[in-house]
Amino acid sequence: MDKNTLVGFVLIGAVIVGFGIYNRPSQEERAQAQHYQDSIRQVVLQKEAEARKQAALAEEAALADTASIFFGSTKGEETFTTLENEFVTLQFTNKGGRISSATLKEYNDQKHQPLVLFDGADAELSFGFDGKTENMRSDRMYFETRNVTDSTVTMRLNASNGGHLDFNYRLLPHSYMVDLTIQATGMQNFFPSSTHNMSIDWKQRARQMEKGFNFEQRYTSLTYKPVDDSFDYLSETSDEKKDIPEALDWVAFKNQYFSCVFMAEQSFLNASLDSKLEQQGSGYMKNYRAEMTTAFDPTGATPTHLQFYFGPNHFKTLLASNDLSFKDKDQELEDLVYLGWPIIRLINRWFTINLFDWLSGLGLSMGIVILLMTIIVKILVLPTTWKSFISSAKMRALKPYVDKISAKYPNPEDALKKQQETMALYREYNVSPMGGCLPMLLQTPVYMALFFFVPNAIEFRQQGFLWTNDLSAYDDLISWDMTLPLLGNHLSLFCLLFSATTVINQIVMMRQQDMGNNPQMAAMKWMMYIMPLMFFFIFNDYASGLSYYYFISGLMSILILWIMRKMTDEKKLLAQLEANKREPSQQKPSGLMAKLEALQKEQERLQKERMKQTQKQHNKKN
After folding, report:
1. In b/e form, how buried is each residue of 83-106, taking b as 16+ CB within 10 angstroms?
2. Which of 500, 504, 494, 495 is nearest to 561 (CA)?
3. How far is CA 484 from the centre of its chain?
4. What are the tens digits of pLDDT across the range 171-205?
5. Which residues pair with 475 in a beta bridge?
């Protein structure tokens, strides 16, 4: 930089600084501007406070209106009633006439205390009724507790005209189901003749029940089932609000392993569903809200029939609960246990679950159950594994002939001819280059079935094996205080073992395919090494039971492949191929080979046309 340039930069900087100082407002001007902003902020705050005050006064005036038919029920003392069976303990409050807490007796939280689905301010439920001259919300009223038994309670809202509104609860025996009927008596004059429904506002903050926040969040969602359709759900990983135009059979506030389900015999209508994420460390996963309507008869002739399910996401428990629900509906509550895509779901429903129940019924630890399931699955897919291996072995046996063809056509422009001769060679020896793909493809749904089953099987929850104390969460035998990017604050040992066996498997598979030094396969080789690294970062937060399954499966794959290599003599295999070599008249391609040959011929035709076009253009120029 020369002297003139340096002086120029200094002068420009001086001008900018000087201009800023010159245009800087004085202290008095700054004070006036700050005072103006503070005045505006104060006015806004005052208006907001006044609006809240007016709303509170209006609500208080409405409740204090002595002309209100429910005036006598607007004040009272909150009392609680408990119903329980061998599975669940429910607490009811007379304020709002609702269930205020639900505790599952057979399950524990992370502190080894009976698992509480919700209590206190975690959940709210309000029923709204529109009258001729006033509207009533149940959460603002104090009910009278009546007809209390071990399994039933009636919450009665008395009206000044002698009528009443009853919320009749019944805890079904040997189940997680609760019946609720809402029935009006002597209330006809309160409701207009046009009233045929009531509104429902249901809220709940879903608690964090499991060890791993991120993994549990993937399976925690507001789920709902439209009438005569399959279930759907709001996003697990982001805030979402959705208005549902169709009628719904049920709405579920779902955690990974537990759900609170609200069902209606005459369906829910005009539903508006909202799910918001909670912050990690708050003790909660999601903040749910469901606003909807359902049928209501103000004459009381037809009670409104509703049901709740407060229990585990256990497939057969949910399946049995369908039989306890409304007679004319198949609620399909078992869909709360996600078992994968349709074909995979069928495998899980009719094979995996029954196999698991049989093995776990033997009294074995869950780690041994996973081991035995893996062995059984490997045995079942062994025929396809063998077929895939033999197909690869035949390709390796013919590799010297393929290398000769490659040497015959070294130039890139002869690639099509090289490919044609190679395919003719395979046809001559009755070998399909795709012969190993179909068997591997048939194995995929079976392996994917266990991928979906293990994280959704509540039986693995809080079950220890070797160094992990919970197969449904990550194992953190190696952990530290700080949080590292991508890795978090722990190292899952099962995940590390799974990734290591994957690397070994990939090396064995590359040798099996005999990729050699083909430059076209370089990218695939790198991908085979990168994938296990990606798996490690992804699965480090996953259930240790799933990583353990993949570790065992990978280890067995290596062992099976080693045994198959020992059992196969490639020289004898080549001799067998030579003995079964087809005569030219018999070398008619079929199936996939025929399609590949047709594709090659089409490529050759297109290449010839391009060459003709190029030649014509060259002749025109000359």
Report:
1. bebebbbbebbbbbbbbbbbbbee
2. 504
3. 25
4. 999 999 999 999 999 988 889 888 899 999 999 99
5. none
Residue among 379, 387, 357, 533 nearest 458 (CA): 357
Q: Which residue has the tokens 């609960």?
A: 321
Domain boundary among 282, 306, 332: 332
If DSSP codes are grouped into helix, strand and coil, which group holds residue 548? helix
Q: CA-CA distance, 46 to 336, in Å (whole number)?
A: 48
Please, where are the H alpha helices in 340-414?
342-347, 353-360, 366-380, 382-397, 399-408
> Domain for residue 461, yes or no?
yes
Helix (H) or strand (E) holding 442: helix 437-456
The answer to the question of residue 199 being in a domain is yes
Looking at the fold, whether 127 and 260 belong to one and the same domain comes out as: yes
Confirm if 198 and 111 have CB atoms less than 8 A apart.
no
Residues 359 and 369 sit within 8 Å (Cβ to Cβ): yes
Q: Give the CATH number, domain containing residue 254.
A: 2.70.98.90
3-state secondary structure of 274: strand
Q: Cβ distance 228 to 257 under 8 Å?
A: no
What residue numbers bound the domain in which 569 lies?
A: 346-579
Domain count, the chain: 3
Q: Is residue 531 part of a domain?
A: yes
User: What are the strands, taking DSSP E only, across 134-280?
Assistant: 135-137, 144-146, 152-158, 164-171, 177-185, 197-207, 221-226, 232-233, 240-244, 248-254, 258-277
What is the reported pLDDT for 613? 75
* Contact assessment for residue 287 and residue 275, using Cβ atoms and an 8 Å cutoff: yes
Cα 247 to Cα 267, 294, 325, distances in angstroms: 6, 10, 17
pLDDT digits over 107-163, tens only? 999 999 999 999 988 999 999 999 988 889 999 999 999 999 999 999 999 998 889
Would residue 443 count as lying in a domain? yes
Task: Say what the pTM is.
Answer: 0.80
Q: Report DSSP state, residue 283.
A: S
Token code pair at residue 527 = 């991908």
Last-in-domain residue among 297, 332, 367: 332
433 & 536 share domain: yes
Query: Do 518 and 447 belong to one domain?
Result: yes
pLDDT at 574: 84
Q: How many CB atoms lie within 10 A of CB 354?
A: 12
366 and 453 belong to one structural domain: yes
Question: Cα 294 vs. chain centroid, distance in angstroms?
Answer: 29
State whether 255 and 154 are in the same domain: yes
DSSP string, 477-544: SEEEEEEETTTEEEE-HHHHHHHHHHHHHHHHHHHHHT-TT-GGGHHHHHHHHHHHHHHHHHHTTS-H
Name the residue among 481, 469, 458, 455 with its Cα closest to residue 538. Answer: 455
Same domain, 133 and 201: yes
Instruction: Find where tokens 């064995």 sit.
Output: 508
For Cα atoms 371, 374, 377, give the angle at the middle one, nearest 5 degrees: 150
For 545, the token pair is 């039971």
**Mean pLDDT of the 506-525 span:** 62
Same domain, 438 and 306: no
pLDDT digits (tens, 9 = 90+) for 248-293: 999 999 999 999 999 999 999 999 999 999 999 999 999 999 999 9
Same domain? 595 vs 575: no
**How far apart are alpha carbons 3 and 9 in whole angstroms?**
10
